[in-house]
Amino acid sequence: MGFSQSFFAEKFGITEHNLEQYLSEALSAGGEYADLYFEYLATTSIGVDEGIVKSATQGVTLGVGVRVIAGERTGYAYSDDLSPEKNHESRARGGVHRAWSRDHRQNRI
What we know:
Blueprint: H1 7-12, H2 16-27, E1 33-49, E2 52-70, E3 73-79, H3 88-106
Antiparallel strand pairs: 1-2, 2-3
Helix pairs in contact: 2-3
């Protein structure tokens, strides 16, 4: 199965080009290595007390994280917006760049 048949490609319209673009944007902030982590978690919970349903909940957690490594520093960013048309790559890059810069300032001697 290629990426185009994957869950995230089919459900959210993410393409291999999008992935390349996200990684390129992350590396343009000065990183030597970058990776992406996609998450989609569907949960259902039913609370029963003495045979009576007391509660029922259902939820979805989804998003994408990006990690950028530059030397000994690591920056992370996460977004719960998976839609390519909303410039996700720019937001992720900005978050990683801020995290990377913050790590850099904290590691100064």
